[in-house]
Amino acid sequence: MAVFPVHYRPRPYQQELHKMWRTKRIGIGVLPRQSGKDVAASMEQCEARLRTPKTTGTYISLNNPMIRDILWDKTYLDPVSGLYIRMLQDNVPADKADWRDTMMMGRFSNKSILKFQGYFQSGQDKGGVGTSFLDYTITELALFFREDPVPRLMPIIENEHEQKRLMAVSTPRGKRKNPLWQLMEAVKGRPDAQVIIRTIGDLNEMMKRAGLPPVLSEERLEQIQASYLKRYGNDRMFNQEYNVDFEEMDAAAVYGEAYVKMVLDHRVSSFNLDSGHPVYVVFDIGSSGMHSDATSWLAFQWINGRLFLYDCGEGHGKALPEYVEDLRMKHWFPKLAVIILPWDAEHHEKAVNTTPADMMRKVFPHIAVLAKSNKVFRLPGSKAQDFDEITDIQQTRIQLYNTLVHETNCDWLLECFENFKYEFNTKLQEWTDKPLHDKYSHMMDALRYAVQATKELNFFGGTFYEVSGKTVHAVNYEEDWSGVW
After folding, report:
1. Residue 43, pLDDT score
2. How far apart are CA 267 and CA 286, in angstroms?
3. Same domain, 328 and 383
4. What backbone torsions phi and psi does residue 75 show, to the nearest 5 degrees?
5. What is the DSSP secondary structure assignment for residue 42, as one 8-state letter?
């Protein structure tokens, strides 16, 4: 007769996690990615449900698709049987649990229940989970930057009448606005709480002492680190995900390192416009008919190769020319020389005869339209190995090291710097090189267009715009970035 667990045999560091969860009310495991955190946490939940009849547990991820990818549909190669097995369904004896796929729920023969659910559901800005569970497990807590679930759960967990548990597993994502870090700080000194932090080096050493092969060999780690260097231009993400490095800024923040440097250099401050130079405004245009898709604008000066970001704004559901009326209320509007639009401003929208650029020319005489870029976040295939060229995002990141930001006028821009992050692939459980399209991305697109304008349009010598008010077209330019990376 099969006994639980049928296949799972905990590694030394997984045994350490189980001991913590069985002796502490709050147990937090911070380990490298793809090290078996969720394997251990899910087996702990199943064991608890089987051990005590009529108990309930829940396993929480960001959303239902993510929890399905991470755990519910997870299979792995069992080293003993040589077969691929389902993590949950094949480790619990068939006569002990009924797994219901549609609801992602396990109903156990002893009347216990284990439910898998997403905290945020599609189309909802806020989320939550039920309050009637005995055990709560949260996976990748550091990714819950939209809303921290812990404040909602702690009053439930600390109910004196029931011995509820909170278990969390995650990789670090920086300290700023990180629910994982905040929870770790909050439970310091509590006798009923424990935090276990282990790097990939720690795990390999524990495996070696037990006479087992490493989780990842040194050769494989070097290959992974090289891939991170190639993808992101630095190894901050590698250190975060494998060396469990809690640096100040999340390594997944696209411009995080440059932003932190900007703050340390006191380049986020109050300053006045230079009366001897014009002001430019660049737009990122929201999709027509989509109220949720914002239109963002950024006012700046470009002086001796330095970018001064002075003011910004964002709106929803307004026609593009209406934003010019908003700009007229600004004290710097008389100094506004050119409004810069992205490449798609010259394209028609859904049976509308005039383009956004045409509409803007009716309310402001000097309009410039940028060229379309094919290297926003990734170089085209034929140039992927050409390190003399860089992407638009890399170009923007470099410019930020010579940029000043007005701390009051650009408060939304600063918030976007902190929260504009790479997209997370839930199936592969890794970060991609593509930035996430969300409420923070619109202002960041406007910033990228501003930097593109300084490279593409003729800010130096001659006349930047036609005195007749005609559109200024982009000019060709060449840059040599050899040796930058």
Report:
1. 96
2. 29
3. yes
4. -125, 155
5. H
Contact call for residues 423 and 286 (beta carbons, < 8 A): no
Instruction: Provide the pLDDT for residue 288.
Output: 58
List of the chain residues with pLDDT < 50: 122-125, 291, 382, 386-387, 460-485
What is the C-alpha end-to-end distance of the chain, expressed in Å? 59
Task: Provide the whole-model pTM.
Answer: 0.68
Domain that holds residue 160: 12-209
The C-alpha atoms of residue 247 and residue 47 are separated, in whole angstroms, by 35
Tell whether 283 and 431 lie within a shared domain. Answer: yes
- CA-to-CA dists, residue 40 to 18, 137, 246, 283, 321, angstroms: 7, 11, 23, 48, 56
Give yes or no: residues 182 and 81 share one domain.
yes
Report pLDDT for 260.
84
List of long-range contacts for 285-293, beta carbons under 8 Å, 24+ apart: 285/320, 285/341, 285/342, 285/344, 285/345, 285/356, 286/316, 286/442, 288/349, 288/350, 288/352, 289/350, 291/316, 291/317, 292/316, 293/442
- The closest alpha carbon to 220, from 236, 204, 234, belongs to 204
**Nearest partner of 274 among 327, 337, 341, judged by Cα:** 337
Reply yes or no: is the peptide bond before residue 5 cis, omega within 30 of 0.
yes
Q: Are 400 and 255 in contact (CB under 8 A)?
A: yes
Q: What one-letter code names the amino acid at 258?
A: A
Q: Measuring CA to CA, which residue among 185, 146, 170 is closest to residue 63?
A: 146
**DSSP string for 173-215:** --STT-HHHHHHHHTTT-TTEEEEE--HHHHHHHHHHTT---S
d(CA 183, CA 257): 24
Count of domains forming the chain: 2
Radius of gyration, alpha carbons of the chain: 27
Partners of 241 in beta bridges: none
User: What is the rounded average pLDDT for all residues in the chain?
Assistant: 85
Alpha-carbon dihedral sign for residues 122, 123, 124, 125: positive
> Could you give the count of Cα atoms lying within 13 Å of 373 in the half-sphere of its Cβ?
22
Same domain, residue pair 433 and 329 = yes
Q: Which residues contact 148 (CB under 8 A, 6 or more apart)?
A: 179, 182
Say if residues 84 and 75 touch (Cβ distance below 8 Å): yes
Whether residue 219 is contained in a domain is answered as no
